[in-house]
Design goal:
The protein has 380 residues and is an alpha/beta fold. 41% of the residues lie in helices and 23% in strands. It contains 17 helices and 15 strands. The strands form three sheets. The protein has a nine-stranded mixed beta sheet, sandwiched between helices. A hairpin with a 2-residue loop joins strand 14 and strand 15. The longest helix has 17 residues. It is globular and about 55 Å long. The mean pLDDT is 95. Its main location: cytoplasm.
Length: 380
């Protein structure tokens, strides 16, 4: 019986680099894009033997901005996928898209390729904020792209927002969030701004915390997000993600549930049979070695059982449903309450975790300090 597999395809190109972004991405030339897509096709096809043991249920094109690729380039990538991997009957296939790069022609091609889920990086519903963030699109362009996507037949559309940005208050956030939610999207992801070293935002704001919402304001922004989106029929199912029933991201759930996924492309990460692997982040190396993935891996780690248990907890607890004692016992043949006796006792007693029947999950207070809570489940 074939095992289930997710595919992640990394497209590192953008129209321009945003001030807050530390992802592996840059503004590539046409020549770079052509060379990269040819290498990506070669890498995909190199997995022909591996693919025989798997059936793909999700594909996710991320970046960067995959929607900058030309129609023929997207078609070439999907032709390579289709010739190499067996896809299940109704896979979830997502492409990340910047509203400033969407056209009716691209949408039609994406649909023909089997793409059935669109993740739009809107980031803000306010034009002044979009300019401050360094986005290339306006709110009006997002609305136009959304309308075009609906006309093209997309009925599963997600949008990303960034919260706790410079100058934001709980009140201005409420207005932005409601403006986006009014568009009747199936899924919304909300990511709190993190100042990453090496970005323009880090240089500008790291030494000036007074320009950012304080802890109390950020707390209210986060807590209000779930309340507001629930009124629009979107339920929180993970720390940063909200969806209408049945529209949760099947691909992203693979990460939190430690399912097998294969990363293809520059710097892409994989987790297959408890082995974590990262492709090289060096473009020259990638182009030279794409036909033999084993030679271009920067990091390969087999996860021993203690590490698997850690991941079960700190990835699983990101979901609002949390983790299951029965599933832990079925996976590891041990009792969760004994393996993590000290951490569980501490976090349940201080109210950071709650339990209901078989499941253990973060409380509202626990979500607000989730990194500290999740760190409790790391073995010394």
């Amino acid at each position: 019986m074939k095992k289930d597999l997710g595919l992640y395809i990394h497209i590192p190109f953008c129209v321009q680099k945003c001030g807050y972004c530390d992802f592996l991405s840059w503004k590539g030339t046409k020549e770079e894009q052509e060379a990269y897509v040819a290498a990506l096709e070669k890498e995909i096809r190199s997995y022909r033997e591996f693919a025989k043991g798997y059936r793909v249920s999700t594909v996710f094109l991320g970046g960067g901005t995959p929607s900058v690729l030309e129609c023929g380039q997207i078609e070439a990538v999907f032709q390579a996928i289709g010739e190499t991997f067996e896809l299940e009957r109704r896979p979830e296939i997502t492409i990340e898209a910047n509203p400033g790069t969407i056209t009716p022609e691209k949408l039609a091609v994406w649909r023909r390729c089997g793409i059935n889920r669109l993740s739009m990086g809107v980031q803000s519903a306010d034009n002044a904020n979009l300019k401050m963030l360094g986005r290339i699109h306006t709110w009006e362009q997002f609305l136009e792209g959304l309308s075009q996507a609906r006309e093209a037949g997309f009925d599963n559309i997600s949008a990303d927002l960034i919260s706790s940005i410079p100058g934001q208050t709980a009140q201005t956030w409420k207005k932005e969030l409601e403006t986006l939610a009014d568009q009747q999207l199936e899924h919304i992801s909300v990511y709190q701004l993190i100042l990453e070293e090496g970005t323009r935002f880090y240089e500008k704001y790291a030494g000036h915390p007074e320009l950012l919402p304080n802890d109390e304001e950020s707390r209210e922004i986060y807590l209000s997000t779930g309340r507001i989106l629930k009124e629009y029929g979107l339920e929180q199912y993970e720390i940063s993600n909200y969806a209408k029933p049945g529209k949760e991201s099947r691909h992203n759930l693979k990460y939190w549930e430690r399912a097998d996924y294969l990363g293809l492309g520059l710097g892409a990460s994989s987790m297959v049979r408890n082995i974590r692997m990262d492709n090289t982040r060096d473009m020259e190396q990638y182009l030279a070695k794409c036909g033999n993935p084993k030679t271009m891996r920067e990091h390969v780690e087999f996860l021993e059982e203690p590490r698997q248990m850690e991941e079960f907890m700190f990835l699983g607890l990101r979901k609002t449903r949390g983790v299951s004692r029965k599933e832990f016992r079925r996976t590891f043949g041990q009792e969760l309450d004994l393996v993590f006796e000290k951490a569980l006792g501490k976090c349940l007693s201080n109210g950071m975790l709650r339990e209901k029947k078989d499941r253990i999950f973060l409380s509202e207070d626990g979500v607000l300090v989730s990194n500290a809570v999740l760190a409790e489940f790391l073995f010394d």
